[in-house]
Amino acid sequence: MDRLGLTEGELCQVLGTDPLTIVSGQADADPRLRILLDLTAEAAERVGDGMLRVWVRRGAPLEHLLAGDFAAFEDDLGDLAERGFTVRRRGGA
């Protein structure tokens, strides 16, 4: 799942499958993968795949994916579309 920068292990957890299914391409038929691709298509167009990967790693989105909470992840994407992605410097200023 290059778009989100998920590791093979993370993708297995999200899809509830094993690495062999991923490597063999059988996961391509999994409807959850299609849903993820559809959900993230607009965000990828707006902010780009690279920034989307950074955003996913910023806490809640990755936690929601790994928990299989696609509804919460969809809400996270809605927040991203509404507010954008803001990078803040640590330590103030």
Any overview of this molecule?
By secondary structure, the chain is mostly helical. The protein has one domain. Helix content is 63%, strand content 0%. α3 (31-47) crosses α4 (49-56) and α3 packs parallel to α6. The protein starts with 7 loop residues before the first helix and ends in a 10-residue tail after the last helix.
Sheet having the most strands: none
Rg, rounded, reads 14 Å
The quaternary organization reads as single chain
Number of domains: 1
What is the residue-averaged pLDDT? Answer: 88
Distance between the termini: 35 Å
The share of residues in extended strands comes to under 5%
Task: Provide the descriptors you would attach to this structure in a database record.
mainly alpha
Please outline the helices and strands.
Blueprint: H1 8-15, H2 19-23, H3 31-47, H4 49-56, H5 60-66, H6 70-83
Helix pairs in contact: 3-4, 3-6, 5-6
Could you give a short description of this structure?
By secondary structure, this protein is mostly helical. Helices cover 63% and strands 0% of the residues.
